[in-house]
Specification:
Chain lengths: 272, 287
């Protein structure tokens, strides 16, 4: 059995010679080349200021590159959703904060993407319930976000992202603000979602351990200017479980990725 | 809790062992919250009555509460018709302030250019004291009622405009991005994101504007004097002062205050009804 079966899928995202310079002159991303295939779980790993979130937002279409080319499923990012309303939802985004509407119930928050597509509550009910079951919150449809814990809010956010059955899931440091226990639990949830639904995940994180636990591939980035410095394929991503964290392979891979990351920190002036 | 006297808990604590102590505490607190202000008010009125009678202060200087109530009863029908005039004026101007403020606030929130061009006018309207403009408006506008309405509207309009504009802009940035990602139309963005985000700000403005509309109506009436045939409470106060009928002045004043209190209670109730289930400002905390 080949180590990385996922790499055989079709190219889903292609970035070539992508630069991003912000209005204030900062070069957030310099000459980024990246090809991501259908079904991969890719972590973008790096210290703050390395452009990993910028890259993610450009893939989603929320930002456009200053120069260079990005295509998602053969289109410019975000354009698919606008030209054909049905497809808006092929790409889902999970933010660092749960980003729920405080005035709406959990059900209505998860229903939002379908509502924006024009589905009635009744048409959407089965899909919303399924998404809530997927994250174990079926009983909380009638609750308001303020009544939930941080981890539960994040799960609602994931359910909302999954309700449109996306082909591509973009996650921007989604668990950075959570405690470790909750983070481990949600890491497993995301792994299961990825395996079961055959989607592509791009996961932005600054945690080596999280990226190694989750990904089939880790893209290490360096700051000032933001750029890709390493691109590491990891073995056995589809068969990991909680025990994987205690195996020597896990420790070894973490050391490997840490070393790669360490190299990026050399030119960071800590007094800056 | 009107049944407080028959409450078994107050008679014998052992009678209802299943009674939750926290619940009981909450109920007695609720009772106190109504009883205490009422008792304080009654004490103040009693002291007033006593001081007036004991010092034999003439009623054309300070009337006793009993005399004010008597006047209120005697002049009731004519005072109530004046009160109705003031109520009409206040509510109509508040309604128009809401319509104008919300509409313009939305336009401001959607277009920076329009906001930049029109905001100075809104500020000028707000900072110029209504007493100072009212005589001019009364000269230019034929109908006294319309002139009064414009004065009250000017006062109530600004907080609604400014809070609506701020509220619409306060929508969470990530939520805005989310709406963009799902290709929401302008209308969907307005209906499902901007309006709910602005609601707490609008409700705060409504509480202020409700009181201001009444103040605007009263001030405008004062400036207009007893010019119109249909006169409101403020012109009755003015008229009574000319005739030295101090008790009736107090009676009319009492009605104005009660109007203000009613408006405050109504807007507070509305705010709780609309925001109570989600917004921090109206959520009841436990413990």
């Amino acid at each position: 059995m080949p180590l990385d079966t996922t790499a055989q899928g079709a190219a889903q995202i292609e970035m070539s010679h992508v630069f991003k310079r912000f209005d204030n002159g900062t070069l957030a991303l310099q000459d980024m080349d990246l090809t991501i295939r259908q079904g991969e779980f890719v972590s973008l790993l790096g210290p703050s200021g390395c452009g990993k979130s910028t890259a993610l937002r450009m893939i989603s279409g929320l930002l456009s590159p200053s120069s260079g080319q990005i295509t998602v499923n053969g289109h410019a990012p975000g354009s698919a959703g606008k030209s054909a309303g049905v497809q808006g939802g092929d790409v889902s985004f999970v933010f660092q904060e749960p980003t729920l509407m405080p005035w709406a119930t959990v059900f209505d928050n998860v229903y939002l993407p379908l509502k924006l597509r024009g589905l009635s509550r009744r048409e959407a009910e089965a899909q919303v319930t399924e998404a809530l079951e997927m994250v174990g919150l079926a009983k909380f449809g009638g609750s308001y976000p303020r009544e939930l814990s941080g981890g539960m809010k994040m799960r609602v956010s994931i359910a909302r992202a999954m309700v449109t059955k996306p082909k591509l899931l973009l996650m921007d440091e989604p668990f950075a603000a959570l405690d470790e226990m909750t983070r481990f639990k949600l890491n497993n949830d995301v792994l299961n979602l990825w395996r079961r639904n055959g989607l592509t995940v791009i996961f932005v994180t600054h945690s080596v351990f999280e990226s190694v636990y989750l990904s089939s591939r880790v893209v290490v980035m360096a700051p000032r200017p933001g750029r890709v410095v390493h691109d590491l394929a990891l073995p056995d991503a589809t068969t990991r479980d909680a025990h994987y964290r205690t195996t020597p392979e896990y420790a070894e891979t973490c050391r490997l990725v840490s070393d790669a990351l360490e190299g990026t920190m050399d030119d960071v002036d800590l007094n800056h | 809790m009107s049944t407080s006297t028959t409450d078994p808990v107050t008679m014998s604590p052992q009678a209802a062992p299943s009674e939750d102590p926290a619940l009981r505490a909450a109920r007695s607190e609720r009772r106190m919250r109504i009883l205490m202000p009422c008792a304080a008010l009654l004490c103040a009125l009693g002291l007033w009555e006593f001081l007036v009678r004991y010092n034999e202060i003439p009623h054309y200087l300070i009337p006793a509460p009993s005399l004010i109530l008597e006047t209120l009863w005697k002049d009731g029908p004519s005072l109530l018709s004046s009160a109705w005039f003031t109520v009409k004026l206040t509510l109509l101007s508040l309604g128009l302030a809401i319509i104008g403020g919300v509409a313009l606030g939305m336009v401001f929130a959607l277009s920076r250019t329009i906001e930049m061009s029109l905001f100075p006018f809104a500020v000028i309207l707000q900072v110029t004291p209504v007493v100072a403009i009212a005589p001019l408006i009364l000269i230019y506008v034929d109908s006294t009622f319309a002139a009064l309405l414009i004065c009250a509207w000017i006062v109530a309009f600004f907080p609604i405009l400014s809070n609506t504009a701020i509220g619409m802009r306060s929508a969470d940035h990530n939520l805005r991005d989310l709406f963009t990602l799902y290709g929401a139309t302008k209308w969907q963005r307005l209906r499902y994101l901007l309006i709910p985000s602005a609601l707490p700000y609008f409700m705060a403005a409504l509480k202020i504007a409700g009181g201001l509309a009444l103040i605007g109506a009263v001030v405008a009436e004062f400036v207009a004097g007893t010019a119109g045939q249909n006169t409101g409470l403020a012109s009755r106060i003015l008229e009574s002062s000319f005739r030295n009928e101090i008790p009736r002045m107090f009676a009319a004043l009492l009605l104005v205050s009660m109007l203000g209190i009613l408006i405050f209670l109504a807007t507070s109730w509305l705010s709780r009804a609309v925001l109570g289930h989600w917004h921090e400002s109206e959520i009841k905390r436990q413990g």
